[in-house]
Amino acid sequence: MRALLVYESSFGNTARVAGAVWEGMFSEVQDVSLLEVGAAPTRLPDEVELLVVGAPTQAFGMSRPVTRADAQVQAGTADRGPTIGVREWLATLERPGRPVRAATFDTRVRTPHLPGSAAAGASRVLRRTGFDIPTDPETFWVLGVKGPLRDGELERARSWGVSLMSLVPGGRPPGS
Hints:
By secondary structure, this protein is an alpha/beta fold. It is about 35% helix and about 20% strand.
């Protein structure tokens, strides 16, 4: 696989955005994998050239066990038990032994506009871990804590996915 997209989702909104980003990436290069964070490897396969990480913003940043537990109660899925989030996965992710580019995105509430971003936090961790971060973190907006996504966000996510493939060595610039 040339690109790997890893995501965490509490209410399904981030999963929907991750799927749309993957669709956009896949439309350009079919060697793209989409994994929920609990199934993601802590050592990237050698062929991965681009890592994309997505998560919901909870309590002004990446989720923690307590914010995920609260989200599970709100979503009615508290019986699933403990989960791993992007924060914990990134803490175990091995430093790449070669140049690997990365991009991050999050979902968060648009109104009221609250500070903090899971994508910005993930981007900082990835940079410290040795990844090349050539693009700013991206945010996709939800209308409330549980959602739904704001109109047009899935289309914007697909377009962003297409544009990300220009970051892969030999990738085509968007629109070419």
